[in-house]
Amino acid sequence: MATRGGDADDSCRPYQVAVLGASGFTGQFVVEELARVASEEEFRVSALRWAVAGRNRQRLEGVLQRAADKLGQPQLTSDVGIIICDVGDPASLAEMCKQTSLVLDCVGPYRFYGEPVVKACVENGTSCIDISGEPQFLEGMQFKYDSQAADKGVYIIGSSGFDSIPADMGVLFTRNSLKGTLTAVESFLSFNSGPEGTCVHDGTWQSAIHGFADQDCLRKLRKQVGYKPLPVVGAKLKRRGSLFYSHEMKKYSIPFLGSDASVVKRTQRHLHECSQESPVQYAAYFAVGGLISVIQLMFAGLFFLIFAKFSFGRNLMIKYPALFSFGHFTKEGPTQKQMDGSSFSMTFFGEGYSEGQSPDQGKPNVKICTKVTGPEAGYVTTPIAMVQAAVTLLKEASSLPQRGGVYTPGAAFSKTTLIDRLNKHGIKFTVIGKPEA
């Protein structure tokens, strides 16, 4: 359990961190990253006590052995604990939670497997970090468990991977880099791949399919929550079309359909309502490229929309991900060479008002451009982000929100050094265009 006094209060539990789903495709990379970080200077005096958790002991032992061989850390196989549990068995989840202060949940799709973990963590006084990019799950957990988590003094922090730490913390970085009041930001995401190309494991594909099918449920949830509109500070941010040419990026672009916009908005709502900070308007876009890329994307998108509407089509798409995604999603996931050659960049274009200039009067008079860059998004950046979020929670408890609860990364970590930690581990936050009138 985290406390406000300093480091997390974990002395009475065998482990500080447990990686749940450690033998899954993403989980194995989280294990490797946590092992790297646990060997750093910060944990030399007081070693990190951690465990891997999942259904199959043999597979968990295999993950630790591969990490030990890859990192040259043979002690991992004896020093790291193993906890046997199953998300379908509440008693086993409760037993896991009682043994650790923090769970890193890598078991998705979260709409199917996430809530039992959150429930067990809250009931047993254990904090939890996940890497979900599913707005329905993320918003649903906040609606259902926020007050219970607050009562227990634990932190349930979602979307702490590539979805959506670069976007959420990137907006805060942009705000902090502007001397004045930032009122609006647009982000443009770009992916780069090497000669081997790239692909994504089909777990993400399944989440996207189910998310599209359940759009009505998300709308109903938001209506049930009854959010009040956030106040618009300064000039209203104009929304772009469904396809447009971005002169800033010199590429055709489309709205980004991931969780970033939802997560950033929840962060801005929290900071406005709880800290009286000026809310920032935000829009997320994906920079597609030239006309050929646009045509390919439109064809793939139409294909997706037709099949995802019907359960028969969804089942086919899930069964044959490589066929229906034109090779972008596979059951095997990317190779090491593909990951080594891939990277991402997210460029933020912000506008606002200089110090002494009131946002209530006139147009924005200052602009800023920042960028977040990092290695391959799904299985290199995501583990780095998740592990650094975990270390921040453990080491900077006094800088977290005063009450426990269900939080976005920006809401939980806005007063911490998470951005500095990410910078040191390969996810770079930079100002590339100084504030200008």
Give a quick summary of the entry.
Helix content is about 45%, strand content about 20%.
The strand count comes to 16
What is the molecular shape? globular
Helix content, binned percent:
40-55%
Structural class: alpha/beta
Mean pLDDT: 93
Describe this structure in words.
With 437 residues, this protein is an alpha/beta fold. The protein has helices at 25-38, 57-71, 76-79, 90-98, 110-123, 135-152, 165-177, 202-213, 215-225, 260-275, 291-308, 311-319, 321-324, 336-340, 377-395, 409-413, 418-424, and strands at 15-20, 50-54, 81-84, 100-105, 127-130, 155-157, 180-192, 200-201, 244-246, 251-255, 281-289, 329-330, 343-354, 366-375, 405-407, 428-436. It has a seven-stranded parallel beta sheet with strand order 3-2-1-4-5-6-15, sandwiched between helices. A hairpin with a 4-residue loop joins strand 9 and strand 10. Helix 4 packs across helix 5 (110-123). The longest helix has 19 residues, at 377-395. The protein starts with 14 loop residues before the first strand and ends with a strand.
